[in-house]
Amino acid sequence: MMMFLGVAVFAQFTLGPKAGMTMGKLNTTFPEVKEELKTGWQAGVFVRFGKKLYLQPELMFVTKGGKITHEGLDVKTTVNLSSVQIPLLIGYKLIDLKAINLRIMTGPAVSFVTNEKIDIDSSIENPLTKDNIKNTIWSYQFGAGIDFLMFTFDVRYEWGLNNIFDPQTGDESYDMKSNVWNISLGWKIF
Questions:
Q1: CA 103 to CA 124: how far, in whole Å?
Q2: Residue 142 covered by a domain
Q3: Backbone angles phi, psi at 175, to 5 degrees
Q4: How far apart are CA 78 and CA 23, in angstroms?
């Protein structure tokens, strides 16, 4: 009985590395600005527990951010954020065949910002600095994926839940949320 249980649990366990691209945008309430996408990358590992219904925690290093153009001032600010991200996803296999399956997934993610870099394309002093970025980004991810043999391909949207703008003393308070498209390719080792 124990041997059967061990084999059943092992058969429902998947582990592997994954890497991909991010396309992020910072949605803000700053007056007279235009937000633009910024590309980045991601790399890490995923674990999948379960068969048709599964749990998929991940540990990822992610670069994201966005571009903000202040209209009228001709000031372009690029925000680069490096973070360690931990998504905790619940998924369901819509099509579950031996060689291929189609999945949907959803769940929360937390990002711990490890580095902030703000590039300003102007000589005008910019009110946005590294001190204005909070260290923790909470988000909600949802998307779909395809597994083909030992490869897994995911496309997800990451919707920012918390305001990551931290006004310093004397600064005006604004909202800034990180919204990101994630595209990744993984390799199921186990």
A1: 48
A2: yes
A3: -105, 140
A4: 13
